[in-house]
Amino acid sequence: MSGERKRGFIRPGADDATVTPQRWGLPDYGAESHKAAKQTAFNYDPGWIPNFDEPELEVEHELTEEEIALIRTAAQQEGFEQGHAEGYQQGLEQGKAEGFQTGHQEGQTQGYQDGIAEGQALIQEHVKNFMALANQFAQPLDLLNAQVEKQLVDMVLALTKEVVHVEVQTNPQVILDTVKASVESLPIAGHAITLKLNPEDVEIIRQAYGEQEIETRNWTLLSEPALSRGDVQIEAGESSVSYRMEERIRSVLKSFCGINRHHPGE
């Protein structure tokens, strides 16, 4: 293994140790012997000298009439196309600007009018709804007012009856005035008269007029327990008059309520 030559290594031999080294010099590129030198590794010929001769002048070509006409036509066509393109672009931009301005104004005006119309319609609808709601609240109030009014009238009527009944019971003049008014209302005077009264009112008439005066007046007093205090029924031949205290009270209240624009309950 030690005597074999290793691959990749160059070992000097015994003859190589006696070789005398030599000096290398640069080649003389100016000598005649090197004019036919070969090209280098960079493909460069050291003996090549560039040629600086003047370039040949080009002869000016004279245009024919046909070529001039073609050039003129081409120039006109190019100018026409360029002008057409520029005019089209300018007109398009101007048309867009004018159209946008006009459309914007018209759209704004139309939108404003449409907005007002829609707003008014919406307001009218809300007003209508509020009016309907107010009417719904007003109807129960009107009904309540009518009910309260009827209750008040009925209460006044009942209270008046009680007051009148008390007045009739405590004040004999009430029945006396009633009998007088009833007799005077008869269409025929001088006939026999029959008076139907409450038993207590009969006693009041007897005490007030006396038997002699009653006979002179040709009155006949009859007790009628079904009649209330203050009620009078008079018969004279074919004529008759009925004075009931409750009806008189109701008539007075009806007249009073009519004057004050009220409607009493029946």
Automatic annotation (TrEMBL):
GO terms for cellular component: bacterial-type flagellum; cytosol. It comes from the Bacteria. It holds the Pfam family FliH. Residues 1-26 are annotated as: Disordered. Residues 125-251 form the Flagellar assembly protein FliH/Type III secretion system HrpE domain. It comes from Vibrio metoecus. One of its GO terms (molecular function) is cytoskeletal motor activity. One of its GO terms (biological process) is protein transport. InterPro entries: Flag_FliH, Flagellar_FliH/T3SS_HrpE, T3SS_Stator/FliH. Keywords: Bacterial flagellum biogenesis, Bacterial flagellum protein export, Cell projection, Cilium, Cytoplasm, Flagellum, Protein transport, Transport. It is found in: Cytoplasm. Belongs to the FliH family. Needed for flagellar regrowth and assembly. This is Flagellar assembly protein FliH.
